[in-house]
Amino acid sequence: xxxxxxxxxxxxxxxxxxxxxxxxxxxxxxxxxxxxxxxxxxxxxxxxxxxxxxxxxxxxxxxxxxxxxxxxxxxxxxxxxxxxxxxxxxxxxxxxxxxxxxxxxxxxxxxxxxxxxxxxxxxxxxxxxxxxxxxxxxxxxxxxxxxxxxxxxxxxxxxxxxxxxxxxxxxxxxxxxxxxxxxxxxxxxxxxxxxxxxxxxxxxxxxxxxxxxxxxxxxxxxxxxxxxxxxxxxxxxxxxxxxxxxxxxxxxxxxxxxxxxxxxxxxxxxxxxxxxxxxxxxxxxxxxxxxxxxxxxxxxxxxxxxxxxxxxxxxxxxxxxxxxxxxxxxxxxxxxxxxxxxxxxxxxxxxxxxxxxxxxxxxxxxxxxxxxxxxxxxxxxxxxxxxxxxxxxxxxxxxxxxxxxxxxxxxxxxxxxxxxxxxxxxxxxxxxxxxxxxxxxxxxxxxxxxxxxxxxxxxxxxxx
Length: 464
Fold this sequence. Notes:
Layout: H1 4-17, H2 25-29, H3 34-41, E1 51-53, H4 59-63, E2 71-74, H5 89-101, E3 108-116, H6 118-127, E4 137-142, E5 164-168, H7 176-181, E6 187-193, H8 201-209, E7 216-221, E8 241-242, E9 248-253, H9 255-262, E10 265-266, E11 272-278, H10 286-294, E12 303-308, E13 312-318, E14 329-335, H11 339-349, E15 362-367, H12 382-388, E16 396-400, H13 401-411, E17 428-432, H14 438-443, H15 445-453, E18 459-462
Parallel strand pairs: 1-2, 2-3, 3-4, 4-5, 5-6, 6-7, 7-9, 8-10, 9-11, 11-14, 12-15, 15-16, 16-17, 17-18
Antiparallel strand pairs: 12-13, 13-14
């Protein structure tokens, strides 16, 4: 008894609610009754009706079953339990490329192609050298033994309708023309950028300036060799280009590239930031500090967590209260193995110029299943103090068992007037993993006594 427009609203809600499941709920709806089938097919854009084609049989047989709806081409690397590819995977891939070569290419709205070998790459790029007027999503993954390059006429030399672009293993220079034409991109993911694919931060920033609708940017370099040449680095521009819609930024590479890129852009609405930097002896991250300081969302983050891994050290910041929302998060990761390098590098990132560190009130430091060899007996305790020195407003310090022994060993050396200079606002140390706190209390007795005399006592208690 419901009118058609109400049914359309309900169907639209069902589609939005179940979109993450990657299932087309409308296909079930059209099989309920003739009226529902008519209502669904009368609102193809409102209900975002699309057909999925994965190469199972010729594309024409699939299309003949349904109305003329946009088509998504999806491939995946099908591996059997034996480790071999599925025997029909080559035929399915050939069917997908045949669809790109067919007269139906102008209905293709999404292309997601994986496991691209050299021979497949040659045929694929040949099929893509023409306009795809309905194409909004494009994802390509190229195997590492392939040396790919996008030809100039790729997509007819222009991609004005693209909303999402994901390229993995494809060098930068060959995609610059494509990026400059993609004015309406919302998501740009460039993964596993090979060393041969270097593009200067200046050229990358130029490409980003045309993307006024860009909300999510991911740049991941394959190795630290993608580093700007100090002799050829241009002067910083007098003004920065604003990316007005960017809310999520992920970068994995050397910090010099990131610094040169950030010097050329502003991101006022940023609320999720993930930075993975390769090891370096000298981290000068002034532009990263500026970016964090200008983001209003980050100013509400009052809880920090440091996690020590075997091959990296992580710092994450988020609000302490409420549920942890991983879509809104600030995380820095430094990729190196030696603990002393990890602490030294992180201490440079957490320098006094870091906008949030000096106001944080809670810090958690934990190790993640580290081998015993990771804890060097000859490592200087002062390196822990160098890391903690920037946390001037810290009130509560949470430590796991292995970390507590090292940190408290460093605090053991701090006494007298200097005890009030290290973590001056500290009130509580919470230790996880000890049945008895006597060992820890004994280790920092001089520090605790000095703080007691100064009128700034520090209590030690169990964590959880």
